[in-house]
Amino acid sequence: MKRDGIVRIRRPALAAAVTLIGSGAFAADLAERMAPAEAPVDIAAQSPWQIRVRGLGVITNDSGYVDAIPGSGLTYSNTVVPELDISYFFTDNIAAELILGTTYANVNAADSIAGLGKVGKTWLLPPTLTLQYHFTDFGAFKPYVGAGVNYTLFYNQSGSGDFTDLDVKNKVGAALQVGFDYMIDQHWGVNFDVKKLFLEPEWKVNYQGTPLTGKAKLDPWLVGAGITYRF
């Protein structure tokens, strides 16, 4: 309605306009509130690959024998070596791990043949593949267990003194594992890991020209600590 050159809006019309504007704002606000929240981005989970570098203590079981000599025994040296492992996560909980490292063992006569001294030395490469279950309910602390298979290759073998032609046979064995990562941030962490390898290869050697055979019951513990990096 226009009166004295001034446009006047009737109160019912003004109220309707305000109501419409308010309804539109409320609907827009409601739609924004009900929109699904954006999922948080877990950067560490963007890649399934993980590596670790460890210092590894190889602690052998001092057991074994020579077939033809009753009461004979064997002992082996323990070592500390560097080790690399590569893990692939199929899910947050399931992963496969391959460890790579090499070490040596001095083989010594023991028990009834202890007086014969050192039998020889062999290097071994024990690649071990395990399937792991990772527990994910403890925040930065991430324990795991695993089981798998080991195939140990023996190389650069040599006898000592009256022993010659030392030959320890390559062997397949089982492996068990337990350990944990403690993640400092999304990529870096520290690791502690223990594996038990069941490794009892056949072996042979010549002693003053006489061939001897037997079994070396190494069954080592692999105790490692190091750094974890998750890509």
TrEMBL record:
Taxonomic source organism: Shinella sumterensis
Membership in a protein family: Belongs to the OmpW/AlkL family.
Alphabetized Pfam families for the sequence: OmpW (PF03922)
Alphabetical GO biological process terms: transmembrane transport
InterPro entries assigned: OMP/PagP_B-barrel, OMPW
Keywords attached to this entry: Signal
Protein name (Swiss-Prot/TrEMBL): OmpW family protein
Cellular component terms (Gene Ontology): outer membrane
PANTHER family hit by this protein: OUTER MEMBRANE PROTEIN W, PTHR36920
Signal peptide coordinates: 1-27
